[in-house]
Amino acid sequence: MAGRLLKISSLATAVFASSGFYLYNTQLDLNDLSVIRFGRAAATTAVISYDYLTAFKDVEYGTEEYLALRSKVHLRSAERLRGLCCANRGTFIKVGQHLGALDYLLPEEYTSTLKVLHSQAPQSSMEEIQQVIREDLGKELSDLFVSFVEKPQGAASLAQVHKAVLHDGRTVAVKVQHPKVQRQSTKDIMVMEVLVKAVHWLFPDLAFMWLMEEAKKNMPLELDFLNEGRNAEKVAKMLAHFPFLKVPIIHWNLSTKRILTMEFAEGGQVNDRDYMKKHGISVNEISENLGKMYSEMIFVHGFVHCDPHPGNVLVRKCPYRKKTQIVLLDHGLYQVLQSDFRLDYCRLWQALIKGDMPRVERYSRRLGAGDLYPLFACVLTARSWTSINSGISSVPVTHSEDIEIRTNAALYLPQISELLNRVPRQMLLLLKTNDLLRGIESTLQTRAASSSFINMSRCCIRALARLKRKLYSFPKLFFYLHETLHYFALSEKAS
């Protein structure tokens, strides 16, 4: 027996020694191991859950002491979650950024803490970037570019962008995917799904499966840069009638699923008021044009760029015509709206703008909100129920109302969670898009300007008029006059 134990211990020693030698020689990053990533995520989830389960035992619900303590628990939990995202990187940062964009759906402690993930994305080394280019394009950097700036212009959760010059003298932006993201993303989403189910088991009121369903559906699309290039060309063609919009041209001969090479476009971020002032760019003009662009995407075409965070929306003076331009970047995440959904969404927004409460209820229910339709209307508009009853176009947004909405996001988190699991999946990215656009408007101090409601209404009228042209055989002149009368009524109301 002693001899057998000695043989087993000797074999184990040899296995561990050889494993250690292998790990040392391959310079394996422990963060690449699934067990490490899962363990870290599970431990963070356990700590956060335990905090929520035990923190309020000796505090009476609803008191000022309870509210103050809840804010502290939200904040330290958000910081733990941010730490997990930064440690596991990749898909975790992407999902964290998504949560950070839900300003009027999640408690402010979470959104403000997770927003910084946009500036804490990891960077791949130059050796890793060269390896991806070598593998996908089959050539060395020097064969493809006259110059290639090693320091990235920007780093995101899935990729980073480098400025380069082609041999014909054109300046391009080269977006290169982080080499490990593709391999890790599927496993990471599985880990998150398991942990979200565990949280739901502990806290039945919180059901975040909507988040995992969206991640599973969208992550493969975002990791396919050829899909991003096709989206860019589609939206450029679709909105070609807007002279203020610039979508960089794709260089298909230098693009693959992991590399996207496009025209280089400079500009300041859309929330940079100092940049706009310095370059003589009108804040109101930018806000109005952004509203026109997104209203057209959502209500008329149903093909929506769903990641308008400030890093993806640049503003500049056109180098040739000196006109103000909006440069739209990062076309990996789009939502395609089904026709029936889009038209009901049009009707709902028309009702919200006018304060037509019977139609607000009707179309909210048709969009899946059920008896939660008042909460749905508040979530969709980030306005109070009082303002919605009066018609959101006629009641200005106040600071106190904004605070009320953010406070309610914490108070009604279980109901919001139920609502997000109830509405069609198409609605989820629209809510994120709405929140990002509202964030930009708040920074520019143009939120709820009358022009934005007019642009939305015009696009809703056009979308519904197209439907009527398909359904009824009246002469085209009839529909033209009908639309013109609606536009005239809008203009009169605005003036």
UniProtKB/TrEMBL annotation:
One of its GO terms (biological process) is lipid homeostasis. It holds the Pfam family ABC1. GO terms for cellular component: mitochondrial inner membrane. Residues 117-363 form the ABC1 atypical kinase-like domain. SUPFAM superfamilies: Protein kinase-like (PK-like). Appears to be essential for maintaining mitochondrial cristae formation and mitochondrial function by acting via YME1L1 in a kinase-independent manner to regulate essential mitochondrial structural proteins OPA1 and IMMT. The action of this enzyme is not yet clear. It is not known if it has protein kinase activity and what type of substrate it would phosphorylate (Ser, Thr or Tyr). Belongs to the protein kinase superfamily. ADCK protein kinase family. This is AarF domain-containing protein kinase 1. It comes from Mola mola (Ocean sunfish). The lineage of its organism: Eukaryota, Metazoa, Chordata, Craniata, Vertebrata.
